[in-house]
Amino acid sequence: MSTDIFRPVGEDWVPVSASLATGRRLVAMPMLALPAVAAAVVGATTSSTAVRVAATAGVVVLLVVAAVAWTWAGRNQRSWGYAEAEDDLLVTSGVLFKRLVAVPYGRMQFVDVSAGPLARRLGYATVTLHTASTETAADVPGVPTEEARRLRNRLTELGESHGAGL
Questions:
Q1: In 10 A of CB 119, how many CB atoms?
Q2: Contact 31, 137 (CB under 8 A)
Q3: Over 60: is that where the pLDDT of 82 sits?
Q4: Where do transmembrane segments lie in this chain (predicted)?
């Protein structure tokens, strides 16, 4: 199975920060751990066999979901990348369903950089390219903070120079 359709011609992909996976895991794990602990406490403190079985099944399901979420975070982080081509920014993502978006520099209206408290602590941001069409807008999560600043400035310059002829 060839994935050449998702590779830029003559360009190298720039991967996003591994901290993106860490951030996603730090969000997901407590949301799964709290109900698992609650189910374990209920199962341990009840005298009903049916409730103990249900609580044990709940804990097992939550542990499986946690393992899947942990694995997904890493695979999803590794699927993201971008490449600065001559006329557009290429963004790829997706593990199961691959996606490649080419955003022409001349079509960019503005570039947005955002980071929540956890992302700032882990040193990454999301760079969003806005165009008139929602189909060609693109997010690049997990860009290291300094690279996000550089990319924002570079894309703004390229957008202005390529859009001047419109």
A1: 21
A2: no
A3: yes
A4: 26-44, 50-73
Q: How far apart are CA 166 and CA 134, in angstroms?
A: 19
Distance, CA of 138 to CA of 20 (rounded, Å): 17
* Neighbouring C-beta atoms of residue 133, cutoff 10 Å: 9
Two tokens, residue 6? 């998702």
Query: Residue 24's CB: how many other CB atoms inside 10 A?
Result: 20
The pTM of this model reads 0.83
Res 165: pLDDT: 45
Q: Which one is the CATH code of 81-163: 3.30.450.20, 2.30.29.30, 2.40.33.20, 3.40.50.740?
A: 2.30.29.30
What is the identity of the amino acid at 53? Answer: V
**Other beta carbons less than 10 A from residue 16's beta carbon:** 25
Question: pLDDT value at position 1?
Answer: 45
